[in-house]
Amino acid sequence: MDPTREPTHTRCAISACGWCDRDGVECRFCAGTGWWRPERPHRDGNGLVVWHRIDEPCRGCAGTGKEHSPLAVS
Ligand SMILES: [Zn+2]
Ligand SMILES: [Zn+2]
């Protein structure tokens, strides 16, 4: 995990979100970083497929780094 990365949001767009109120539950998609880094295939001019790594705010937690999935309820 890159220590320079910080979650982009402290809370998601939902006011009074119960998931944002929880502490210590890291998003399982981004491990609490608020970012995910998928690789996307890109076909270059020669027909070769190259993979580009992209960084974008995690969709699983709206960039908060906190678990937001009801499936994680224990
Ligand atoms: Zn939330
Ligand atoms: Zn996440």
TrEMBL record:
This is HNH endonuclease. It comes from Nocardiopsis exhalans.
